[in-house]
Amino acid sequence: MMLLLFALQAATAAAPAPAPVAPQDKVICKTYHETGSFLKTRKTCLTRQQWQRSSETNQGAARNVVSAGTGVPDGNLGTGGL
What predicted TM-score, i.e. pTM, was given to this entire model? Predict the structure, then answer.
């Protein structure tokens, strides 16, 4: 009986505990509804750090559009030379 207890205790002690996940490495999934569709969705999973970088990039692009005053990113794209 004691041998069984020692074996059980040794087996549980030998199992490594999962490493804690750093907050910036935690994966966050977001679901987006496709434009023009009531049913189609798109799921994107990124780490907290990747979401932060994406947000900063998008804000920078929006700031450039507003400051340029064109309403189109990076100038007059798609105007056909008008």
Answer: 0.54
Q: What is the tens place of the pLDDT at every residue in 53-74?
A: 999 999 999 888 888 876 666 6
Q: Which of 47, 42, 2, 5 is nearest to 26 (CA)?
A: 47
Strand locations in the chain (E): 27-33, 41-47
Residues 6 or more apart in contact with residue 65 via CB below 8 angstroms: 71, 72, 73
User: What's the DSSP call for residue 69?
Assistant: T
Residue-wise burial string across 40-64, b where 16 or more C-beta atoms lie within 10 A, e elsewhere: eeeeeeebeeebeeeeeeeeeeeee
**Residue 70, SS3 per DSSP:** coil
d(CA 32, CA 76): 28
